[in-house]
Amino acid sequence: MLKGKHIILGVTGSIAAYKSALLCRLLVSAGAEVKVVMTPLAKQFITPLTMATLSKNPILVDFFNPENGEWNSHVKLGLWADCYLIAPATANTMAKMAEGVADNLLLTTYLSARCPVMVAPAMDCDMYAHCATQRNIERLRKDGVHFVEAEEGELASGLVGSGRMAEPQHIVDAVVKLLAEKKKRTLDGKHYLVTAGATIEAIDPVRYISNHSSGKMGYAIAEELAERGAKVTLVSGRTALDKPAGVERVDVLSAEEMYEACVARYDEVDGAVMCAAVADYTPQQVASEKIKKGEGDMSIALKRTPDIAAELGRRKRQGQLLVGFAMETQNETANAEDKLRRKNFDFIVLNSLRVEGAGFRGDTNVVSLIDSASREDLPLMTKREVAARIVDKIEKSL
Ligand code: C5P
Questions:
Q1: How far is the CA of 328 from the centre of ligand 1 (A)?
Q2: What is the CATH number of the domain that holds 164?
Q3: By residue range, what is the domain housing residue 229?
Q4: Is 351 a residue of the active site?
Q5: What is the tally of structural domains in the chain?
Q6: What is the pLDDT of residues 26-49, one digit of tens each?
Q7: pLDDT tens digit string along 81-100?
Q8: How far from 166 is each of 148, 186, 202, 347, CA to CA, in Å?
């Protein structure tokens, strides 16, 4: 989500600084490179050692290193960053930012930064509500600073009200959204449905039939569509993945539930990408109690599930787009081309299972994009890169 992005995390002297540790970890695990700048007071609330370990970079507090005189260039730092995130931001720091005061490295970096700046305030409810603080927030907004609003809840003072720093995950979502807005919003006004993940077909209350799909490919597509400005409804079977920022997720389990969710929404979308690994068969009957083992073997009678993609293909109206996936172990091309016609797809993404680095669970894939007139064989790339190529093809067909 933030792969390759450079983020400066500014930490000021607030009790909420303990949440900066988790925030830093979330940014790093989303793929960002993080450099932490702390105000001198912030060191009283969270140790530089913690922040240095989590960010994997030395912490910057002073204008220069007193040991060797090495200069911490706020100008270079400001140019390096794709985003300057100040979280938590105290009333004091926001007041100084609004006035252009530059008496610490965090503030000089603010004045040097050319990237978007995002601020997550944290303070007691009365300080937050004070007209001076609100005036400073308003001034900063006018200066182009973005805010992740403080949330309601119990505060360190024991009071309950608005002033708690937003939860770290909400802040990360806001940063992802902010950086995505900087991308070209080529799909503004469009709405896509994406299916992803594995379906779960219950046998009894404890067992089920499923498959190895991780949902990574579908989630990457949902994320890419959203970053280019599209509204995305992600109908998701079971996965271990977090909801991508800016995407509406509808959780389902069985193929039947996925079918209902997709058919109900298909009319209102501009297109659908069918990435889910949907069970083709489901038990004829779901036992209401756990099935006891007996002496002999047993078999389970299965019935067909609805083919969601084929149904959407039947309902497809002029101008609507339908993209399918195929994962074949034999006669790959012939089977994929057959599916393209049978399910009325505009194009199909053929996963190659024979190539190392392709298919389930991993972060890479090897695919071919096939439509009725052409075929493009892509080399091994990350699922996120594959998603970008698929979305490029969706854009071209508009
Ligand atoms: O026919 P097959 O299942 O191989 O087709 C794969 C394509 O059809 C994928 O895009 C998959 O998401 C979709 N599909 C579906 N509903 C099913 C089975 C497959 O949407 N019941």
A1: 12
A2: 3.40.50.1950
A3: 191-397
A4: no
A5: 2
A6: 999 999 999 999 999 999 999 999
A7: 999 999 999 999 999 999 99
A8: 7, 30, 39, 42
